[in-house]
């Protein structure tokens, strides 16, 4: 046993990816769910509090619920602000990027036709609702990081969201100079830089194989409609 | 200015109700502004009050807070309802997030098309009785304490109480297989701040009706 957190999920992004980003600096192990049997074994063993993954074994706990896991990691590694008010700001910002990434989360499960519509929705939400907020925050205080002049969970989450939206439209940052500079700065932070290199534990854009695996293991998500 | 938190939302439960519960449980009085027209909502956006153009909005301690979870985390932290350390906080967060998944099904229910309502009600029943209630029944049975986490009243207890009552409104006998939860419900009902919130005339909102659904669709029409 290495003492590192152990992540139980599919071999793909889904809801676990934000956790991988946040743990990139600390390091982690992974167990990939590939068969229904593996999942049922986990269920029968009582490791999944609400019968769901993500699940992360860390510090003697079997944590579930993505938000709870991320909050715990952020606090443990001092990425959660210095007081309650900074934490509130970080929570608000993360709530926004989480909502934005929520539009992308189910994208792989949509029909070809719905995918085109959803791509437009993602870009529209990013450029009219979410990116302008972070652009303004950075412009207003002129600091490198979103909250309290200190690297935090909010910065990691925003970088993740930016890269994911760019995968859907490569020039989406063209109206957002602050975010372009932010992206460049974040990408050069050593642990993030390493996570962005090939061979890291970062997962690729979900493909049909990933969708198949999720459907097979969970027996769900066969008929997903856009939100 | 009263110094009290000010809540802006529609005059109904929706995403704001859990916040009302938490503030009430903490013994905090608050003011409310009710959105009734699209124009009022558009004005809030235009005036820069809504960070992501969405409500709930809670003005508290000089902040214009949005994002339900962020708001509740802040309130829980401020009023000592978030556990005594990181691990208790993790447990509370896990429980709250789970319950929140169930609450979301109930939140969406009034907006489901008529031909899907029966199926959705069945889903709520299935999830409540097979996924969520058994977890908390077991937690309470195992430690034998009054409260879910750390032998102390917390956000998790408030959220579970809200969920139990919300599910019971749809399925009155839903607690019949859950003796621990029945006792929990009775105990929570007699916590003074919760008892007060459950009385007529409190800020607690009634179950959503057709008028509420109409207002939501009107105010948030694109």
TrEMBL record, chain A:
One of its GO terms (biological process) is glutathione metabolic process. It is an enzyme of class 2 (transferase). InterPro entries: Glutathione-S-Trfase_C-like (IPR010987), Glutathione-S-Trfase_C_sf (IPR036282), Glutathione_S-Trfase (IPR040079), Glutathione_S-Trfase_N (IPR004045), GST_alpha (IPR003080), GST_C (IPR004046), GST_superfamily (IPR050213), Thioredoxin-like_sf (IPR036249). It holds the Pfam family GST_C_3. GO terms for molecular function: glutathione transferase activity. Keywords: Transferase. Residues 3-81 form the GST N-terminal domain. It comes from the Eukaryota. Belongs to the GST superfamily. Alpha family. This is glutathione transferase.
From TrEMBL, chain B:
Residues 85-209 form the GST C-terminal domain. Belongs to the GST superfamily. Alpha family. It comes from Pomatorhinus ruficollis (streak-breasted scimitar babbler). GO terms for biological process: glutathione metabolic process. CDD domains: GST_C_Alpha (cd03208). One of its GO terms (molecular function) is glutathione transferase activity. Its EC number is 2.5.1.18. It is an enzyme of class 2 (transferase). SUPFAM superfamilies: GST C-terminal domain-like, Thioredoxin-like. InterPro entries: Glutathione-S-Trfase_C-like, Glutathione-S-Trfase_C_sf, Glutathione_S-Trfase, Glutathione_S-Trfase_N, GST_alpha, GST_C, GST_superfamily, Thioredoxin-like_sf. Residues 3-83 form the GST N-terminal domain. This is glutathione transferase. Keywords: Transferase.
């Amino acid at each position: 046993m290495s003492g590192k957190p152990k992540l139980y999920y599919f071999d793909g992004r889904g809801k676990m990816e934000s956790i991988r980003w946040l743990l990139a600096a600390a390091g982690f192990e992974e167990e990939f769910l590939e068969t229904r049997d593996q999942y049922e074994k986990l269920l029968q063993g009582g490791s999944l509090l609400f019968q769901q993954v993500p699940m992360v074994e860390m510090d003697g706990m079997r944590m579930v619920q993505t938000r709870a896991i991320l909050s715990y990691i952020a606090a443990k590694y001092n990425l959660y602000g210095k007081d309650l008010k900074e934490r509130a700001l970080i929570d608000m910002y993360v709530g926004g990027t989480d909502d934005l990434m929520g539009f992308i989360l189910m994208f792989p499960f949509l029909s070809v036709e719905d995918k085109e519509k959803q791509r437009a929705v993602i870009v529209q939400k990013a450029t009219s609702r979410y990116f302008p907020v972070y652009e303004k925050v950075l412009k207003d205080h002129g600091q490198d990081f979103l909250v309290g002049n200190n690297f935090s969970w909010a910065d990691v989450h925003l970088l993740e969201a930016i890269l994911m939206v760019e995968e859907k439209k490569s020039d989406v940052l063209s109206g957002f100079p602050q975010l372009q500079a932010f992206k460049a700065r974040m990408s050069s932070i050593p642990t993030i830089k390493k996570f962005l290199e090939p061979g890291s534990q970062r997962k690729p854009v979900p493909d049909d194989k990933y969708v198949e695996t999720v459907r097979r293991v969970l027996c769900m998500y066969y008929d997903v409609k856009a939100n | 200015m009263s110094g009290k938190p000010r809540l802006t939302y529609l005059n109904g439960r929706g995403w704001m109700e859990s916040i009302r519960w938490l503030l009430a449980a903490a013994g905090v009085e608050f003011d409310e502004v009710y959105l009734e027209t699209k124009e009022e909502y558009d004005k809030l956006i235009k005036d820069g009050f809504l960070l992501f153009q969405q409500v709930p909005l809670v003005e508290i301690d000089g902040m214009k807070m949005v994002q339900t979870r962020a708001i509740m985390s802040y309130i829980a932290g401020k009023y000592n309802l978030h556990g005594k350390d990181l691990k208790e906080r993790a447990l509370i967060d896990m429980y709250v997030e789970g319950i929140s998944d169930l609450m979301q099904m109930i939140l969406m229910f009034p907006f489901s098309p008529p031909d899907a309502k029966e199926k959705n009600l069945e889903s709520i029943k299935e999830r409540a009785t097979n996924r969520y209630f058994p977890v908390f029944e077991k937690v309470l049975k195992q430690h034998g304490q009054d409260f879910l986490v750390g032998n102390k009243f917390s956000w998790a207890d408030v959220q579970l109480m809200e969920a139990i009552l919300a599910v019971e409104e749809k399925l009155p006998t839903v607690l019949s297989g859950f003796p621990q939860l029945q006792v929990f419900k009775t105990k929570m009902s007699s916590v003074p701040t919760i008892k007060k919130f459950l009385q007529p005339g409190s800020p607690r909102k009634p179950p959503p009706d057709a008028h509420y659904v109409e207002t939501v669709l009107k105010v948030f029409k694109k």
